[in-house]
Amino acid sequence: MNVFGVDIGGTGIKGAPVDLDRGALTQERFKVLTPHPATPQAVIDGVHEVVSHFGWDGPLGVTFPGVVVDGVTRTAANVDKGWIGLDARKLISERLGMPVVVLNDADAAGIAEMAFGAGRGRGGTTIVLTLGTGIGSALFTDGHLIPNTELGHLELRGHDAEKRASVKAREDEDLSWEHWAHRPQKYLAHVEMLFSPELFVIGGGISRKPEKFLPLIHGISAEIVPAELQNNAGIVGAAMRAATL
Ligand code: BGC
To answer: Is residue 113 part of a domain?
Structure first.
């Protein structure tokens, strides 16, 4: 079965049809730049452009970089605040004329990793963290998702954790991997202290360069592995949800 997933990120809005038997894109994904400011109208235009590129007309899964409860976007740390309290599912569905499901981006990536990637077949507690513009989290217990955990906003040395430990923080502050790594290291130790997971799956932009980062992390009891679906995880997870429509 093929369904369609769109991933709304801090830099790009990307999408593709997905083969759910393999958890893989059936065509090369298409991406438009995330508009700035990332207002609902401008972003939904971008989603429309991505979906139209493929002539898709069917169930659509869309990720959003904030809390999403029953199709309503509740927070907007890295996009325009106009998203807060919006019935995004209804708006996108009306604009595109198709059934839509909206879910948190890290939850989508996590669902995909648990089904087809680094978390496949893993029981116990697994935490998928996406390190990119922000830090996203997806918490699983025996493969079941507890949605909208928002662990990227834990406090780390008096700061919002994602402001210090995200990939964007490394780039903005022009830090070497060595100078930056102690931040995600402390962050992982903190999350481990709270949840005692057996496995951390590290996704987002950083999963393309695990060799730069993972060897610098020490003293964490849980196994730490890079995400396998890399930047397609959000698209695949969104499509998996769309299949339930
Ligand atoms: C948001 C999360 C999101 C993460 C990654 C955070 O700022 O609050 O909802 O999953 O960024 O995009």
So the answer is: no
Q: Are residues 151 and 223 in the same domain?
A: yes
Burial bucket for residue 210 (CB in 10 Å: 0-12, 13-18, 19+): middle
Give residue 245's identity as a one-letter amino acid code.
L
Q: In which element (H, E) is residue 236 found? A: helix 233-242
CA 130 / ligand 1 centre spacing (Å) = 9
Domain co-membership, 7 together with 96: yes
Answer whether 217's CB lies under 8 Å from 185's CB.
yes
Range of the domain at 170: 119-227
Residue type, 98: M
**Based on the domain organization, do 99 and 128 belong to the same domain?**
no
Instruction: Give yes or no for residue 204 CB within 6 A of ligand 1.
Output: no
162 C-beta closer than 6 A to ligand 1 = yes
Q: What length does the chain have?
A: 245
pLDDT bin (cut points 50, 70, 90) of residue 120 is: very high
Question: Is residue 134 in contact with ligand 1, taking CB distance under 6 Å?
Answer: yes
If asked whether residues 8 and 75 sit together in one domain, one would say yes
Distance (Å) from CA 205 to ligand 1 centroid: 13
CA distance 26 to 122: 26
pLDDT of residue 135: 95
Q: Is 34 in the pocket of ligand 1 (CB under 6 A)?
A: no
Residue 114 inside a domain? The answer is no
Mean pLDDT of 87-110: 98
30 and 46 assigned to the same domain = yes
CATH of the domain at 12: 3.30.420.40
